[in-house]
Specification:
The protein is elongated and about 95 Å long. The longest helix has 42 residues. With 144 residues, it is an all-alpha fold.
């Protein structure tokens, strides 16, 4: 089945916009990988999930526009949209998120250190009270 040039142009423009949306989804996965960077397998799992989402979205998109017939310019438009998002808004958003994440981690570290210090003092106080170490005088020397 043949499609007119205007239909193909509209499809490419929608593919570019759809690629930007997929770039946003990839940005979410990148942020999650930044948060869970000590887990090496998380990067692999997130990449596989993104590939599955990209494949499913491309199939649904091609069903909607071309009745399921795959067109390479749709895939190319999606990839250009993803790369366009990644190298413009994606860079800025990741920097902003990293700054916010570092500030949140500093605040959490402050509170955990504070509560750890209080807990240690309370446990130390309980230990002194339990073994009567809080009294300065000795019981034997007080009563001859």
């Amino acid at each position: 089945m043949t499609y007119s040039l205007s239909e193909q142009s509209v499809a490419v423009l929608f593919a570019l916009c759809f690629g930007v949306a997929l770039g946003l989804i990839y940005d979410v996965f990148r942020i999650l990988c930044t948060v869970f960077r000590k887990y090496k397998y998380f990067q692999f799992v997130s990449d596989v999930c993104f590939m599955l989402i990209f494949t499913f979205a491309t199939v649904i998109f091609s069903i909607g526009f071309y009745r399921g017939n795959p067109r390479y310019f749709i895939i190319l438009g999606e990839i250009i949209g993803i790369l366009g998002y990644r190298f413009t808004v994606g860079r800025v958003s990741l920097r902003v998120f990293r700054n916010i994440f570092e500030k949140i981690m500093r605040i959490l570290k402050f509170f955990t250190d504070f509560f750890t210090k209080i807990t240690k003092k309370l446990l130390h106080l309980r230990h002194k009270m339990l073994y009567n170490k809080h009294r300065k005088e000795d019981v034997i020397t007080k009563h001859p």
